[in-house]
Design goal:
Layout lengths: L6 H28 L10 H55 L6 H22 L2 E2 L2 E2 L11 E9 L2 H7 L8 E4 L5 E7 L6 E5 L7 E2 L1 E2 L7 E6 L2 E6 H5 L14 E10 L8 E4 L6 E5 L5 E7 L7 E5 L7 E5 L7 E5 L2 E5 L8 E5 L6 E5 L2 E4 L11 E7 L7 E7 L10 H13 L3 H54 L3 H27 L7
Antiparallel strand pairs: 1-2, 3-11, 4-10, 5-6, 5-11, 6-7, 8-9, 9-10, 12-19, 13-18, 14-15, 14-19, 15-16, 17-18, 20-21, 22-23
Helix pairs in contact: 1-8, 2-3, 2-7, 3-6, 6-7
Keywords: Cell projection, Cilium, Flagellum
GO molecular function, one term: structural molecule activity
InterPro entries: Flagell_FlgL, Flagellin, Flagellin_N
């Protein structure tokens, strides 16, 4: 079959070849300018997928590096703070040893008390340390100071303390301010409420105390100048009188400095009920939400119940409660649910624990908690929700001293606050007790510092690993994406020569025309 070659066909082929040669040259020039073999997915579809995945890995590793920098800042600041606190405790222990010595005078103890009171305020300042404006020891309440200074109360009477904690009006509150410890002595317990005297100058002068004329039901408010102390009638009924101003007998109260924790705690556990008639509370350390269902309240002396830790997908059945109350205790993973009322079959309760940790991912497989819960480190007094153990059911929030292993001996702020009170009232035995507790408090601080140091080592190790991973990913990306410069330069020279040849030959072909032979 004959084919007619026209001038238009020749010109079209020439232009097509020119464009093809130019496109190849431009692509090679682009690779030369970027030094990348893959500039678009079409250059190498499989390689482009590898490039995108590797870049995502590098971006993630970059975030880990930023997290590591942040974690190092938080932990280094916490480490420095705890070291300073431990040094300060050592200094305070020296003063406590002097106060516990029988050879020093009342005036000496007063001078020591002034110094320890200043150190107490310095401890609060240390516990309120921030990093980049965030509180280190306030749990997740990073915009809140961990502790605030206030007043606390100490007694020398365990029977009085037991009555003070009893329902229906447990605990106490202190309002007002004082620059020195207020010491309270009950002088006559035959009256109701009992008569008392107080001193704010270490026992040099005594003043008869008064009570508020309009106390809340079941309570009394002791008025001592600028300080008011409110407690239950039951606690006052348990107080013992003493005939003289020697605190070796009778019930005595020391109103002295205290630190109140303002952050959140792991004990902040919310319990909601499908049946609002039944008030419930929970105590323990829960790793997640727990659902509890009462299955049978009629068979046997105990309730049958089930619980779920996966949002109700699966249930652990066949559990038995404590003896029916109220209150009734139901053991669940992490703690105990207490029902202050009588439940019905099918009633459900939802336990939601508080989260206090600020956790930063420092590697693909590891994360580290960078903050702390101040009351679990320094102690102090914190607000806790407590359920009424007897009907009518009710929950109240009480200020309680933080405990460690069931004792407040390692509670640093309470120990130093009591020491100030004992020094300012010339109580040698109290100073000795505070000295013993300071050792436990310092050990608690050192244990926390060791934990922070271990976290710092983890962060350092993670940083080394992340750097290695980032280097490997960068090398992988370079092998897949980067162009071979030697090959690229050779290819560029060849394509430039080819393009010049196409242009020259095209110009010669384009000049051929029948018109030239007419």
């Amino acid at each position: 079959m004959a084919m007619r070659v026209t001038q238009q066909l020749i010109y079209g082929n020439v232009i097509s070849q020119n464009n093809a040669a130019l496109s190849r040259l431009m692509e090679t020039n682009n690779q030369a300018s970027t030094q990348k073999r893959i500039n678009a997915p079409s250059d190498d579809p499989n390689g482009a997928v590898t490039v995108l995945n590797t870049r995502a890995d590098i971006d993630q590793l970059g975030q880990y590096k930023r997290n590591i920098t942040t974690a190092n800042g938080w932990l280094n600041q916490a480490d420095s703070t705890l070291t300073s606190v431990s040094t300060l405790i050592t200094t305070i222990k020296g003063y406590a040893e002097q106060g516990a010595t029988g050879t020093i005078t009342d005036e000496n103890r007063g001078e020591i008390a002034s110094a320890v009171r200043q150190y107490f305020q310095q401890l609060i300042s240390q516990a309120n340390t921030t990093y980049s404006g965030n509180s280190l020891f306030a749990g997740q309440k990073t915009d809140t100071e961990a502790f605030t200074e206030g007043l606390g109360m100490t007694s020398n009477d365990t029977a009085f303390d037991t009555a003070l904690a009893a329902w229906p009006n447990p605990g106490y509150t202190v309002e007002g301010d004082t620059d020195s410890t207020v010491l309270v002595q009950f002088t006559d317990t035959t009256a109701s409420p009992p008569a008392f005297e107080y001193t704010a100058d270490g026992g040099q002068t005594w003043t008869a105390g008064t009570y508020s004329a309009t106390p809340a039901a079941g309570t009394q408010t002791l008025q001592m100048g600028g300080v008011n102390l409110t407690m239950s009638d039951g606690a006052l009924a348990a107080a013992k009188a003493s005939a003289n101003h020697e605190d070796s007998s009778g019930t005595w109260l020391w109103i002295r400095p205290a630190a109140y924790y303002q952050g959140n705690t792991k004990e902040d556990i919310a319990v909601t009920s499908a049946n609002n008639a039944v008030v419930a509370s929970a105590e323990g350390t829960f790793s997640g939400n727990v659902m509890v269902r009462v299955d049978d309240t009629t068979s046997g002396p105990t309730y049958s119940y089930s619980y779920s830790t996966d949002g109700g997908t699966s249930w652990m059945t066949g559990n038995k409660s404590g003896l029916p109350g109220p209150p009734t205790s139901l053991s669940v993973p992490g703690g105990v649910l207490t029902l202050s009322g009588t439940p019905a079959d099918g009633d459900q309760f939802f336990i939601q624990p508080s989260t206090t940790d600020i956790s930063l991912a420092i590697s693909p497989t590891d994360s580290v908690v960078v903050n702390g819960v101040g009351k679990d480190i320094f102690g102090g007094i914190y607000e806790k929700t407590v359920a009424n153990p007897t009907p009518p059911p009710a929950n109240v929030k009480l200020n309680q001293a933080a405990t460690f292993n069931g004792s407040d001996a390692a509670n640093l702020f309470e120990t130093v606050g009591k020491l100030v009170g004992y020094l300012e009232t010339n109580n040698q035995a109290g100073c000795q007790e505070a000295l013993d507790n300071l050792t436990a408090s310092q050990q608690q601080i050192l244990t926390t510092a060791a934990s922070v140091g271990a976290k710092e080592n983890r962060v350092t190790s993670a940083g080394t690993m992340v750097d290695t991973l980032a280097e490997n990913s960068t090398t992988t990306l370079s092998k897949v994406e980067d162009a071979d410069l030697t090959t690229l330069i050779t290819k560029l020279s060849e394509q430039e020569l080819a393009y010049q040849a196409v242009l020259k030959s095209s110009s010669m072909v384009m000049n051929l025309s029948l018109v030239s032979y007419i």
